[in-house]
Amino acid sequence: MDILLQEVGYSYAKDTPFEKRALTDVSLHIPSGSYTAIIGHTGSGKSTVLQHLNALLKPTEGSVMIGGRKIEAGVKAKNLRDVRRQVGIVFQFPEQQLFDETVLKDIMFGPLNYGVSEEEASRRAHELVEQLGLPPEVLTKSPFDLSGGQMRRVAIAGVLAMEPDVLVLDEPTAGLDPRGRREIMDLFHRLHIEKGLTTVLVTHSMEDAARYADNVAIMHNGRCVVTGEPVEIFSNEEQLRDYRLEPPRTIRLQQKLEDKMGIKLDSISLTEEALAKNIALALSEGRDSE
Amino acid sequence: MNSIIMSFENVTFTYMQEDESVKPAVNDLSFSIQDGEWIALVGHNGSGKSTIAKLMNGLLFPQTGKVEAMGKLMSEESLWDIRSQMGMVFQNPDNQFVGATVQDDVAFALENNGVPHEEMVVRVKEALQQVKMADYLDHEPHHLSGGQKQRVAIAGALALRPRLLILDEATSMLDPQGRMEVIETIRELRKATGLTVISITHDLEEAALADRILVMNAGEKQLEGKPDAVFRSGNELTNLGLDLPFSMRMTHLLREVGIELQGEHMTEDELVDELWTFYSKK
């Protein structure tokens, strides 16, 4: 499902003395099936954009197309139920939203609200718990008796149980330990491929954006200033620094190495594995030429 | 200099002791921390780190074994005296503000402790200078960035002139810049004052700066030592759900693709140097 922001402006508390502009003239296309990373310094407007993706916020200027549905500034948007089901948002620290007595009930809550049958909602919960690598026993437990990492997974299962077409992730791994972080990011990538989702990742981690995304947008001072493929975005160090971002560590290390040795590696290394291969290649070529 | 500021002796703690299927959150744990040390306590989610923090400040008491802090056995009687000598900073910067301005917030604990006004003004200023937030005296805390908020929280702890500062995942909710700011602040504080710091973290880059690392797993101490020694145990750490610093991960990946590096590199510069030597010899 495509999402298209056209010249979107947004002001919090508009027409009050507390009015505060958060977005200015944002045009951004999230193509169907893409894995789009939205990056930007704290306060750049990332979270405000995110809330436009399922009409939690409605633009005060411009319009947002969500699939076939147009949300336009100044026009009252009615019946957003479909949009809210189609675009699932995993907010930061989603475990804070858990509330029900058991994990099973918590996961079923969303689908039941949308008229899915008990049986089907329960089937989805069972399936998701397995997909998310949780033991089946957790279904009957209180979500509050689980560890932090498990609670995070249950909360994510609750969003996935709605079977969204677009999955929006706001810093989904914040506060998790390194293994938990990798497992969850790999899981999202797998779901992205298996379910043919459109995925939007809002993140501070340039490493995650470089590793997983195929489309990157940079937010700066409430504007969407650049969009492109990770290779272009992350090889332009000067541009990143203009927007108060750092290149991923692999690229910084590649740069250091290239400066020291006076050589150029074959390609920009977006992942650690790619960097290791690129270095090995350069070293063996160095050997061959002498 | 060689006095022990905090020690655990065979400490065990189990939540819901009556339920026999519940495993201890901390199991037979012993360690001691010297005055002036910087200790990183690392472990995966659920490894017992937060329970240890609560045992350190007397929010929980061990069911067996003992906790000593500032030379005293932790007990209902001693805990107020012990707490007055330690500062704590927690994970979520938004949950620990009470003041309407930065200086009010830093002054809060001083007021509670009955510090006279003139003295308070001096201490607030000094504490904020130590974390480089002295220009923000009258700012509202919720308008600060995450890193700034945590630095103010550290100042609030410092104003009490503690002997020990405990950081309970104080950087884990911050963006990369915020994290760097806070780590840099701790480094400088340590340089200037030699304050004892215990940082509970899963950021291995942060742990790499400590004098000593304790690695926790399932309530038990798994490894203990200087950062380079702990990181050299490579697979053991990754098996525990932790990670290695970036330069060491790269060293391992490079070996996997057939580059026979000699050293275990804690910094990128060391790694680049060895690669360069490697390259120029060929």
UniProtKB/TrEMBL annotation, chain A:
Topology in membrane: Peripheral membrane protein
Gene Ontology cellular-component terms listed: ATP-binding cassette (ABC) transporter complex
Subcellular location: Cell membrane
UniProt similarity note: Belongs to the ABC transporter superfamily. Energy-coupling factor EcfA family.
Pfam families: ABC_tran
Subunit organization: Forms a stable energy-coupling factor (ECF) transporter complex composed of 2 membrane-embedded substrate-binding proteins (S component), 2 ATP-binding proteins (A component) and 2 transmembrane proteins (T component).
Single GO term (MF): cobalt ion transmembrane transporter activity
InterPro entries: AAA+_ATPase (IPR003593), ABC_transporter-like_ATP-bd (IPR003439), ABC_transporter-like_CS (IPR017871), ABC_transpr_CbiO/EcfA_su (IPR015856), ECF_ABC_transporter_ATP-bd (IPR050095), EcfA2 (IPR030946), P-loop_NTPase (IPR027417)
Protein name as it appears in the record: Energy-coupling factor transporter ATP-binding protein EcfA2
Record key words, sorted: ATP-binding, Cell membrane, Membrane, Nucleotide-binding, Translocase, Transport
EC annotation from Swiss-Prot or TrEMBL: 7.-.-.-
Segments forming domain ABC transporter: 3-246
Function of the protein: ATP-binding (A) component of a common energy-coupling factor (ECF) ABC-transporter complex.
Coiled coil: none
Gene3D superfamilies hit by this protein: P-loop containing nucleotide triphosphate hydrolases (3.40.50.300)
Automatic annotation (TrEMBL), chain B:
Family according to the record: Belongs to the ABC transporter superfamily.
Domain ABC transporter, first and last residues per copy: 6-243
Keywords of this entry: ATP-binding, Cell membrane, Membrane, Nucleotide-binding, Translocase, Transport
Name of the protein this chain belongs to: Cobalt import ATP-binding protein cbiO 1
Major place of residence: membrane
A Pfam match: ABC_tran
Keyword Protein biosynthesis found: no
Recorded superkingdom: Bacteria
Gene3D superfamilies for the chain: P-loop containing nucleotide triphosphate hydrolases (3.40.50.300)
Organism classification: Bacteria, Bacillati, Bacillota, Bacilli, Bacillales
Molecular functions per Gene Ontology: ATP binding; ATP hydrolysis activity; ATPase-coupled transmembrane transporter activity; cobalt ion transmembrane transporter activity
